[in-house]
Design the sequence.
């Protein structure tokens, strides 16, 4: 059984048909990359999983831990253990790093208990664990998040997701706009959290960087999967890379 399974998903924005018969799986414990050009449907796929609206999934199913979560609202998807770190790296700019992390815990607890149990037990990573994963955040814990560099904000956004109860982390273009050196720092952080047991679905336009840390990769084009294989197979498949990824 796969941790996540999309089966023949059709998703729409209004009447615009964006995802067409899209099927893919994410296996427990792996880093899976979803690659493709601008506008190919990567973000729409993540939104179809996370319950963010729009889009609307009209056909097909999304299953997580063998339960049907198609069309389930975002808070409930999050309570089941899926966290989305969106492209725009939502952090609270006027709060410090420590305050941002604390707030994630409070929000995480709320969604963990949403419609489930009434206990306020915190199931995500502790602040200490997060600081161990991201030493840079500990150094900057009293600094306002808005004054962090792009890479540090990305780490804070990922750290906030970790403070929630996360089995599957959806990362939308975490490398966007970051210098190569900083990309390496974010890569290392993603690697670490994966080694600690979080499964990762990584969406990227930077195919080379994503393939480096992924176990498997999918390529999406015009809303459908056009390649599915190991990262190694994609690295060797020049035709697919040139045709759909422009590299
Ligand atoms: P990018 O890297 O540019 O974010 P992407 O692969 O993530 O690319 P999506 O954001 O999933 O692409 O967009 C897929 C298609 O859906 C595009 O043609 C886009 O214009 C369209 N689209 C995205 N959001 C909306 C929306 N809210 N309403 C209507 N169409 C949308």
Sequence:
């Amino acid at each position: 059984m796969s941790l996540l399974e999309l089966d023949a998903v059709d998703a729409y924005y209004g009447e615009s048909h964006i995802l067409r018969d899209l099927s893919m799986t994410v296996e427990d414990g792996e880093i899976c990359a979803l690659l493709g050009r601008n506008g190919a449907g990567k973000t729409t796929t993540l939104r179809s999983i996370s319950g963010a609206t729009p889009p609307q999934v009209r056909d097909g199913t999304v299953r997580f831990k063998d339960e049907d979560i198609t069309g389930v609202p975002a808070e409930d998807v999050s309570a089941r253990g899926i966290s989305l770190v969106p492209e725009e790296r939502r952090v609270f700019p006027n709060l410090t790093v420590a305050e941002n992390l604390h707030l994630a815990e409070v929000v995480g607890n709320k969604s963990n208990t949403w419609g489930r149990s009434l206990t306020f037990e915190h199931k995500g990573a502790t602040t200490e664990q997060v600081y161990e994963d991201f030493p840079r955040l500990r150094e900057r814990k009293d600094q306002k998040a808005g004054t962090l560099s792009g890479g540090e904000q990305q780490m804070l956004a990922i750290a906030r997701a970790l403070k929630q109860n996360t089995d599957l982390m959806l990362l939308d273009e975490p490398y966007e706009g970051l210098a190569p050196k900083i990309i390496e720092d974010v890569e290392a952080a993603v690697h670490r959290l994966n080694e600690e047991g979080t499964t990762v679905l990584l969406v990227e336009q930077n195919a080379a960087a994503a393939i480096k840390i992924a176990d498997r990769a999918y390529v999406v084009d015009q809303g459908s999967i056009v390649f599915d294989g190991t990262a190694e197979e994609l690295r060797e498949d020049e035709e697919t890379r040139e045709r759909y990824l422009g590299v």
